[in-house]
């Protein structure tokens, strides 16, 4: 076996007597370098775009959200609060009251979600850092912080005490009566506008927990959900079991991926599509290697006759050219991975490519998983191509 490898190694570095074959070998090697580098760069660029896109939802979504499996509310009294604080891995948590409401301001109307939060909410989500205009909620006030899209669409003024925002919900247990207003309304003043993404900015407004409870007419110790922040090294299964044990079986605990199932499915599908497209490019590049190996087999016929006379079997001759093909593929692929990794790391640390028309650096992310994926793809497809080409050696 070492003799076979030495012959393949010699063929790999030696030049052919025919200039055409040398050029074919160089082109095959160059194409492998380019195709491998392209696959690595595209996967890293998608990883950067994925992180950039998820950064908007990750800012707004907690590590875990606890909701009721039946109904819209869960009970969360002081005893459960004390027990939840003792769970290992939990950094902070905040009960939430959330409901769809109807907004009206100066003859402009819009439907949004009111999210009532407590003081501990900032320990779970740093929402105060997202406020673009004004300030975050002041405790024990009838104030709200609206999304930038809601504020722009309804012409909301920050600290505009001359005109209040009307927030309405359908009344509960309404009795039949023509003169009775079917909506219960409270007024609030806008003290801030937050900005995350267009989808979130036009969907949510924030208020203090007391204001939301009075408007929604929920009894004490009743909440829509509980948002939890945990340590990065926390054991997910154990933590969920502890929370389930404290809050009962009628709840479900969702992480960020489960809260954005559609988004993650879309991203995974796009990742698969990009991988398959550029794998096809790599497959086309491997045809050059097959052609180069066939030309090498034809050129080395006289030498193969001598090697047979020396006792090398037909199988070992095939294995020699299989190894030669793998050397071309691995050497070219390795060079492509190194060059692409250098480009990716430079863009990641010292950006030189920006999004057209902006000063925003194009997001890329070097990931070890992408490196393994590219190497595995190269080895598997390269083995198939080399084995196919080396079958051309017949008696």
Characterize this entry briefly.
The chain has 395 residues and is of the alpha+beta class. It is built from 13 helices and twelve strands.
Features:
single chain, two-stranded antiparallel ribbon, 20% strand
Structure write-up:
- The protein has 395 residues and is of the alpha+beta class.
- Strand 3 and strand 4 (108-117) form a beta hairpin.
- Strands 3-4-9-6-8-7 form a six-stranded mixed barrel. Strands 2-10 form a two-stranded antiparallel sheet.
- It has 13 helices and twelve strands.
Helices, strands, pairings?
Blueprint: H1 2-13, H2 19-60, E1 64-68, E2 74-75, H3 78-85, E3 90-105, E4 108-117, H4 121-124, E5 131-134, E6 143-147, H5 148-154, E7 165-170, E8 183-194, H6 198-201, E9 204-208, H7 209-216, E10 222-223, E11 225-230, H8 236-247, E12 251-255, H9 256-259, H10 261-299, H11 301-309, H12 314-349, H13 368-390
> Which regions are unreliable across 5 or more consecutive residues at pLDDT < 50?
none
Following the backbone from N to C, one meets helices and strands in this order, namely: HHEEHEEHEEHEEHEHEEHEHHHHH
Overall number of structural domains: 2
**Gross morphology:** elongated
Q: What is the strand content? A: 15-25%
- Based on CA atoms alone, the radius of gyration comes out at 32 Å
Structure annotation, total helices: 13
Helix/strand-derived category reads alpha+beta
Mean pLDDT: 86
Number of DSSP E strands: 12
Tell me the distance between the termini: 21 Å
Strand order of the biggest β-sheet: 3-4-9-6-8-7
